[in-house]
Write a structure and sequence with these properties.
Length: about 70
């Protein structure tokens, strides 16, 4: 048994076709994965953590607001 509550996995940064404002454009995409130990971290809290990580990774300018508080 492991005592590690969360493992984050980073993939390789690669250009991919994505839809932005109704158009297909090429953007760099960094796959991010995670696994949580439900004995230590509740799934609901893990979901909130995933939502926050997604929010700040897709809108990094929001991090400036945090650092100024």
């Amino acid at each position: 048994a492991s005592n590690i509550p969360i493992v984050l996995l980073l993939g390789k940064l690669e250009p991919r076709a994505v839809v932005r404002n109704g158009e297909i454009v090429i953007r760099n995409v960094l796959p991010l994965g995670a696994t949580l130990d439900h004995r230590i971290i509740d799934g609901g809290q893990g979901g909130k953590l995933a939502k926050a990580i997604n929010k700040y990774l897709t809108n990094p300018e929001l991090l400036d607001k945090i650092s100024k508080e």
